[in-house]
Amino acid sequence: ALLLRVVVSADEARRVHLSQVPESVDALIDVLKEKLQLQGDFTLQFEDPDFANALCTLSDISEIPHDRAVLHIKWKIASQFDNSDSQSLGSISSFDTASLNSPVHTSTNPSPTTSSNLRSTSVWPSPFPIPPLSHDVELKLRKANEAYEKTKIGIDVTRDIKTDILDKITQVTFDITAYPRPHEVESIAVALISKYPCLKENDGSGYEGWLTSIRNRFSYFRPKLRVAGCSEVSINSKSKGDGDMTYALKRAKRGEINHCPNHPNEHDDASLEEQRMLLVEASKKARVDDSLIRVKMDLTFSLRRREVVEEQPMVMVIQNRWPALFFKEQIVEEFFRITNKNLLGTFRAAVEKCTLKLLRLYRSRKASFGKDLEHILMKLDDETSNIIRHRQDAALRGLPIFLREEPGKLFKQCLETDPHDVAVKGVAVGVLYVLEDCAVETSSPKVQNISLIVEESVVLQDIADTPTAVAYLFGLLYALNISYPEDLKYTFDTLQSVFMEMGPKCTKRVRSLKNKLAF
Fold it and tell me: CB of 224 within 8 A of CB of 198?
């Protein structure tokens, strides 16, 4: 057992009790992120008793003092906002911010003309980095901080100081998201009084007044963005229908950072529709020009997202209007445009990391899950070749069972001579294994083809293996803005929160699994 005192910031320290020491420093960081609900990149320092409790960077888990220790979190994001007084605060791209939580994307970056309308920050920073204020306001607050250290008396906040603070915070926040969640808004207020203690209020938490002011400023700013034509806000505007007021929010809910961006500069609906038609023609050629397809897909991204998010068309309609969206390469590219994450790279790395841990969990609990899980493990034990591939296949196919969902809802199979329309009937989303005819009597049927099903239609075929198929299916749900099926919500929540490490929170059932995999 290990008892930790974790210093999150200058004003916050938390107690964390671990039943056992994690295997590595990375595993410890993952545990702390989960238990303390932290997001963003950070390193750990510990108070070394051999050097009078001086801080040392934790590079190996064995360096932690036994039984109890004091850890200090050092945030990596803070340096991006240092020494930036001369930089523009109008756009997050002015900070030249890269993805904060994703592997390097393997393809070339979008051209400046198409990327200028896209966000590049993939996670909400924790702690929130307060941007530099106007020079005169910074001077006033600096002197007020010095006086506060001696007298503990805060500054008299004038209108110009408050306006400057709220304006700068609003600009930076809306470059990350137009709809910050309540805990994210609160993190802004906490970060504000941490950087400027002289702004701390005497009552309660010390930031309730600032929290109210920040919320009100956001509410005031959104209508201005709507009037200015901001797509992400405009799609959530109220509209009248049949005499009744209808209001359906279409906010990003699964870690999307470019949910519904504005059109690129010098383009409108008409010009992008022309580009879409050229894209359709290029997609139907016998020899597809991949580079041309990618340029056109980048350029028309905003038009496509507006259709998918606002109009919510059927998949068959999207296939007719955007056939390139169902190319394997473009599923990966579209996922990156939406989330700034490498779909295949991140997912495959997570599968490699979690496979053995999942299989150990399955074996230790198989008596509780009936014959389905036991059958998967027995088939794995019978395999004598391609063991790594079969392990990964078993880990993913056993996931719905372990989460107490029906595996048959996600993974389907049929013989190659069977009519496919029967196999896909009633399937909202799923992976279809097409087996050779003679495989019925064998213990290890040979898979002839792996396909993806969306809305009772096969949308992708000839996929190499189960991890790749599941990754493509997950990417398509984002590209098509399809909600997770209710009877598979825990499985896809696990793929999102555990495998892809996306989104601010997960269900209790998935969090329990995530904690088990952390050790």
Answer: no
